[in-house]
Design brief:
11 helices, binds zinc ion, globular, alpha/beta, Nucleotidyltransferase, domain 5
Length: about 290
């Protein structure tokens, strides 16, 4: 596998003791070059000690990775597992592994000039959390979960919630005209959260464009910067010429399209899905995942 060989060559030293002296020592079970360290006499390969070091089938992992980062819509875990002849939980674990590698390798972006910002929302999900099971087994110590279950909507006749509520989690999207963009989870819908998240992103000479939420107004007022408010009505999205939030709107559309097949990912994994989308939009190569693992 050339990706693993490339990993070895970038900074070749023993992953166990750091010694640079080594000699070739045959090939591993997965047909990649093995080395023996002259210092500690132990053998290693390009992935020893890395996040991908203990994967039994790196070749199939590579296929899964190409599927995740490819140009076409990623396949579901079950379909991919069937195609690769693996258990679905193996593929799921690999996906979580890739999330952690991508999450730690994405660098911070800086914005300049006209900066568009807006929020999109994702419904909160406690998928697979077993919070109700925990509550019923030990009602004394585990409090009643605050959110209704799906079945409550039919058995108790609850009204399905429409529009924004506390179960809709805000994701701030920021983009500038140079092509820099970012998705960031916000703790809540309050203006102060928006202001706090935006503050380090907006330099003093920038011109933020937004839908005029309180957070953006307060940010502009506090920093004494010009701020363009774009109408909330779809027809009034463009204020004048270059002051619009169409790049952010298009990022939101891409987010919605990307997230839809996952039927509302569990909130604990949402950050992973967001960084996955960022990696896909940035055209990250599978080889980069191997380098930063
Ligand atoms: Zn060594």
């Amino acid at each position: 596998m050339p990706e693993i060989e490339a990993r070895t060559n970038q900074d070749h030293k023993c992953p166990l003791c750091g010694d640079k002296r080594h000699q070739k020592w045959g090939r591993t079970r997965t047909k990649i070059q093995r080395y023996r360290c002259t210092g500690c006499q132990k053998t290693y390969s390009g992935r020893t000690g890395s996040a991908i070091g203990r994967i039994h089938r790196p070749d199939l992992f590579m296929v899964a990775l190409r599927d995740m980062l490819g140009t076409s819509t990623p396949q579901s875990v079950r379909k991919l597992a069937r195609q690769l002849g693996l258990n679905k939980y193996t593929v799921w674990r690999w996906r979580m592994l890739v999330f952690s590698i991508i999450g730690s390798s994405i660098s911070s972006t800086s914005f300049s000039r006209i900066i568009e910002a807006d929020e999109t929302y994702q419904r909160e999900s406690q998928k697979r959390s077993r919070e109700w099971v925990h509550h019923f087994t030990d009602p004394q110590n585990v409090a009643l979960p605050p959110r209704p279950r799906w079945e409550d909507f039919t058995t108790q006749g609850l009204k399905m919630m429409r529009g924004l509520s506390k179960w809709q989690l805000p994701i701030l999207t920021v983009a500038d005209r140079g092509g820099a963009y970012l998705f960031q989870r916000l703790p809540n819908r309050k203006g102060i959260s928006v202001e706090r998240a935006m503050k380090p992103l907006v330099p003093g000479d920038a011109v933020p464009c937004s839908d005029g939420g309180n957070g953006y107004k307060d940010l502009a007022a506090a920093g004494g910067i010009e701020h363009f408010v774009v109408g909330r009505k779809p027809g009034k999205r463009v204020v004048s010429g270059c002051y619009h939030i169409q790049n952010v709107n298009s990022l939101h559309a891409r987010y919605k399209k990307f997230i839809k097949p996952f039927c509302g990912p569990a909130t604990k994994n949402l950050n992973g899905y967001i960084s996955w989308l960022e990696a896909r939009l940035a055209g990250m190569e599978p080889a980069e995942i191997f380098r930063s693992a």
